[in-house]
Write a structure and sequence with these properties.
With 223 residues, the chain is an alpha/beta fold. A 5-stranded mixed beta sheet has the order 1-2-5-4-3. A two-stranded parallel ribbon has the order 6-7. A two-stranded antiparallel ribbon has the order 8-9. Strand 1 and strand 2 form a beta hairpin.
């Protein structure tokens, strides 16, 4: 922890003018930087702090972050679930942009890790590609583009990576329907795969409620 705290102090001093926030989260240094500073900060992290390896890069959708449509507590047994009746049982004010990109970096030389987060503005989020700093970002950025629709300026080949060629939308966005938009099947008359509107009826899943009563207590004690 002492080494982690020292690293946090060093990064705060080095990026005093760039950082929006810096803290220890889950025993790891987390830096929050503006999207327009991501290249400057990442370049310095690699060259000056020897974070030579990009472990992961992913997108995040904060739509309705802090909001729940039901309460899953012990009293839910008596009161019933609130989903579909009272929306937004719990809500935190969220003033930050909807989308963010998170970078997980590793310094093999110093055996240290750091997490960098940058929020992107607008419904069509975009941020500079870090391929020029870490070549491993190539497929990571393609995945974030495919799943979240985040555009990475300067990426040499920003194509979908996991979805089909004609896929519409970005499936990891919170407002993407769980049943999808279209379904695929083989048409024996046409002799090929065809797409059609999804025929699955949307269904709300019932959350699990843990009941602390003698039915389960006795069973657990017997085991």
């Amino acid at each position: 922890m002492a080494d982690t705290q020292t690293l946090l102090t060093q990064l705060q001093e080095r990026f005093a003018s760039e950082l929006l926030n810096a803290e220890l989260a889950l025993a790891e240094v987390t830096l929050e930087v503006p999207a327009n500073q991501i290249l400057t900060v990442c370049q310095a992290l690699r060259d000056e702090f020897q974070f030579e390896e990009l472990i992961d890069l992913c997108g995040i959708d904060y739509l309705e972050y802090g909001q729940a449509d039901w309460e899953t507590s012990s009293r839910a047994t008596n009161t019933g679930f609130s989903r579909g009746v009272d929306k937004a049982v719990y809500r935190e004010d969220q003033e930050k942009p909807r989308f963010a990109v998170v970078y997980h970096l590793l310094s093999i030389q110093h055996n240290q890790r750091v997490r960098v987060r940058a929020f992107t503005e607008g419904e069509l989020p975009r941020i500079d590609s870090v391929i020029s700093i870490w070549a491993a970002a190539n497929w990571f950025e393609r995945e974030a583009f495919d799943m979240y629709g985040i555009l990475f300026d300067g990426h040499p080949d920003l194509r979908r990576l996991l979805t089909d060629y004609g896929f519409i939308g970005h499936p990891f966005r919170k407002d993407f329907p769980l049943i999808g938009e279209v379904e695929m099947r083989y048409d024996p008359e046409k002799g090929r795969v065809v797409y059609q509107p999804v025929s699955i009826d949307p269904r709300v899943l019932v959350p699990r409620v843990i009941r602390h009563d003698n039915r389960y207590t006795k069973a657990s004690e017997a085991q």
